[in-house]
Write a structure and sequence with these properties.
Elements: H1 2-13, H2 17-40, H3 46-70, H4 77-106, H5 115-128, E1 134-138, E2 145-149, E3 153-158, H6 159-164, H7 167-182, H8 184-198, H9 207-221, H10 226-234
Parallel strand pairs: 1-3
Antiparallel strand pairs: 2-3
Bound molecules: zinc ion (ZN).
Amino acid sequence: MTSELSCIATCIASQNPVIAFLNYILIGIIGISAFALIVFGRHFSLKTNFLLKSAFLTSLFLFLIVLLFATPASANSLFVYTHTSLLLLIVGYFAFSYLFAPFIMRIGLKRTANAEVEGIITEESKNLNIKKPSIFVFADSQASAFTVSGIKKAVFISTALVERLNKDELKAVLTHELLHLKGNFFNLKRFFSSVRAGFFGLIPIQVEELDILAEDKIDESMPGEKQALDRAREKL
Ligand SMILES: [Zn+2]
């Protein structure tokens, strides 16, 4: 056991000074971002939350990759085994995120109940003839609304946006989000988002461009609510 532990220390620390330095920085980022997310996660804005999650995942991935190439052939078997298992876990995460993206998205967000939003979603899903997605109203001071898909589809909307909109505007925004779920662009976006998420954002795929295309299409399909939607957009 002592030799296993000393191998872990040796393998991380004394490859060569540059790798050791890089590893300590990565361990630092992993530790700080994990601590911040666990302790203060609920107080951060969505954007900060995103940033911390990607900092955590990217550092973890880089750390494992560095170890994969830096571990000497003579390294202790337990260390190599642990490391390989971790890499497999990361690959597993790619698949997991594709299937459970809405669940992952909810981590660190504080859910609040809102009967009005729930009611609109139920009614509009019926009107649009789509399966009712789950709706997640989360406490945040920034106005935002978006859709996420996994095994189950989900619409996310922040309390700040709900509070700023009147009933017509709220209905227009929620219908807009439901149309995202219904549209063809959404599956394409989900696929590319997963590829990007799979590589922890390291591959620069411009998912946002698909969004712009989808926005125009959705606007065309709900001309009656255009004014309410434009007013809502101004409040974003
Ligand atoms: Zn949109």
